[in-house]
Structure formats: C-alpha cells, structure tokens
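FORM 7B: Structural annotation worksheet

SECTION A. Query
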Amino acid sequence: MSKKDLILAIDIGTTNCRASIVNKAGEILKIESEPIELVSPVKGWFEICPHKLWSDISKLILIVTRDFHERILTCGITVQRNTFITWRKDTGEYLHNFITWMDMRSSKLCSQWNNSYLINIGRWAAWMLGSVVKSRHMICASTFTVREKAIPMRVKWVMDNVKDASLHHKNKNMCFGTIDTWLIWKLTKGRTWATEYSCASSTGIFDIWKSQWCKIMTYLFSCPIDILPEVKESDSYYGDIDISLGFGFSAPINGVIGDQQASIFGNMLFDVGDIKLTLGTGVACNINTGEKTHPTSHDIYPLIGWKLVGQQPFYVAELLAANGGRAVDWAVTSGLVSNISEIDSVARSVPTSSGLSFIPAFNGMDVPFKEPFAGTSLFGITLKTQSSNIIRAILESQIFISNFVLLKMFEHYGKTNNIKVDGGASQSAFITENIAQLSKVDVIRSECIEGSLMGASFMAGIGSGLYKSMDDIKLSVKPMNTDFLYCEDQCNVQMEGNFLHWIMNARKCVDWATRLS
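SECTION B. Predicted structure
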C-alpha cells in the first residue's frame, strides 16, 4: 500500500476555484482551476449558483486526485469569506443562491444604520467607556460601522425578502453557512455543519474576544443565532470526505481557514509585525498582531488569523479594498489586451499614462474613499489617447490602491522594512516594482503566488500530524525562488504626482455618486 503523504487543497476564491495536490515540502504536484461564474439578476447583486459551484468543485477534485487516491492523507480548505447561503435542514434544499461578499443589495440599509442615532450613540458610549477602562474591545466598538461586505444586513435582507425563510426558521428547519460551512457539509454528506474561527470572525456577527457568536449583534440585526453553525479550530477534524461521492477515495478534512488569513499562513508570516499584500480580486493588506488585537480605525479591522487546537487565537489586522484587481481582469475581458501575460509589455510600451486616471469601482469604492454607489470611471481621455495609455492607467490604479492601503497600515502599525506580495496581479513586475518605489518599502514576491492554497495545505498538514508545529512547516517546506524588488532612495516624482491626481479624481467619483444616490 502507498504511503499517505499528500494533501488535497481546495481554494474557492472570488474569481476562480482551484484544487491541488501538495506534498510535505510544499510543492504543488498538480493543480486545476475553474472560473467562478457570477450571477447578477439585479444591478449590484452578485450571486453564485450552488449547483454549478458544486459541479465545478467535484470535477476539479476528480481530475487532480485521479493519480493519487492511495496517497491522500488529508484535505485542507480555504474560501472567500462573507459569501453565504441558507438551506432547509430536513431536505438540504437551498433557499437562495450564494450571496457574495461583493453584493450591494444592502448598501442603502447599511447607510441608514451607520447614520442612525442608535449607532452613533453606541459609538460614543463605547469610546467613553473604552477610554476610561482602557478596553481594546470598547475602543474597537467605538469605530463600528455596518459594512456591505459583512454579513448582518444581507442576512436581514434574506429573512425579510426570501420566501419561507422566516417560516423555516420558526420551524427550526434553517441552516446558514459561509462557503466553508457549505463545502464541508457537502463533502461529508451533511454529517458536519460547522465553520472555522477565521471565517466566522470576518462575518461581523462573531465576538473575536470571547470566540463565540455575538448575541448582541445577532439580536441587533435580526440574525437568528440558532441558524448559525458550530465554530471549530482551524486545524480541527471536520469529518471525512464521503466515499459515496464517487471521488475514488476518502480522507479527513483537517484544515479550514479564510482566504486572506490562509495567505498569511501560506507565506509563513508567523511572527508579530509580518505583513503581506494580496493583489487578487481585491487588494487586501494584513498584518500579524500575534495573540493581541489593537484598536483600529474605521477601515482597519481586527480578525482572528487562525486558532489551533489547545492554543490561543492568533490575530491579524486587515484593510481590504474590494475595488482592486477586477480592473486587470476587465482589461482582458473588454479586449484591451488579448491575455494577462502581455499586459506588462503593453503598459511599458508608453512612457506615461498621458494624464489618464482610471478609478476602479465595479462594485462600489473602498479606497481612497468609501462610496458604495460610485461607478468605474476613466478621466483625461483626449484624441491622442491610445489603448496602451489606458492599460498603463489601469495598472497604475492597482499601484495607487496598494500604496494607499499600505500608508494607512503604516500609520497605525509603523512602517516595516519589507512586505510580501501574492495573488494573481503580483505576477505583474510593473505593478510590484512601482509599489516598492511609491510606498518606499522592499517588496518580496515568491515564485508561488498561491498563498491561500498553501495556507490551506499547511493547516491541514498540522491537523493531520504531517507537520508537528508552525516551526516544523518552516523546516519542512522547500525554499522557493523569490524576487526582491528594492525601493530606491530617490522618489519617483512623476508617479507621486499621478497618485495625488488619481486621489483628486476619485473624489469626483464620490461627489457624483453622492448627488445621484
């Protein structure tokens, strides 16, 4: 019999879902992917059909595991966070499609709540109490805002608008699940209904200090606490992949972790102060804060990074700009470039963007200003504008968003000597080099851009005993080739000027959206 020494890692992102086989040395032996198909029945709504998603995942598992059935030791899962679904407990019938984290149906409701007397009085009271008793918990609560990307308002929308949702809840026949919960439930054929700490902490209804669902938040936003799943450790045992699913093998699920936290774990940023920037569908910056959380601004949120069995949680701080990497995908789908591999050469074929400012806001704007109703805009077009100028402006928008995010993190946590980058857009040397120059920090880019996938693999490896500890991961994993992109001492005056010009034009987008909404 073959030795069981391989990990099946599943990564359900926003743009693609992937399945891979990874060995103890961190080498990807096989990887396959399928695009995520978004459904938009109403402008601003972004959904995923669960039947299509399950079909795609099943196909990927069948393909990547075909030659490794006897060697699969364990399974690790990482997923996009805050995308959820509800279903009937008795039949498994879905009450609606997945409502994704990009969905904007609750925007107006969120705006009303954030400007309400109740929320503002609550913020003031939390700030006063936190200042007196020096409570991190209260100080964080004083900056509380209801976010479209968090779950409470969208769950409230489901309870108010989805047919029979309230009836099934009343009859105790309703289950809620983010994608990790749903996938575990599917893979175990309904035997396990659970989520994981990092995924739960991102929802906006989980108390990260008490490590439990927050009764106050669930009550405040009419989110029934009894529809929420059990919360388990990141390296816990979540049940076995059922043999009757027809994959040709069964293996325990020993690792589950949210995508951005998985990226930190996969890049082995285990020390306090380690920071990474993911250039994916959005731009996400996370810093490891260890076993303590820190008071934050309105835009930086403390989250659980991971929690291992028998240990205290590790925390991270996160700043997410959702209006990030989709612009690069749009450049390809719109026909501006034929494929992603040529986008750098096209951008470098012209010396400047010729005064253009591209403001990505395909599902609202997070950075540099928050405006859920803003739309994507391109400023400065003239009769001499070429497609290559537009491509360069699109890539510059990713640089400017990344710089803004980093500056904000440095303001709160201090400047670091270097940052690690991963995600699809990190393949662009034009983007990463200019991030280093504009932010004035060295950028480290690994040859493996699949940080989240590796994080799921490593977590499952710990849960299955393949690795004894986080230190053992560092000892076991084969060193990867790494690019060091050094910032130069002299400032790039042109790029800094373009950055300020870009912020000015982003403000115009916000002003227009405010007048029209």
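SECTION C. Observations
The CA atoms of residues 1 and 70 lie 7 Å apart. The longest strand covers residues 28-35.

SECTION D. Sign-off
Analyst initials: ____
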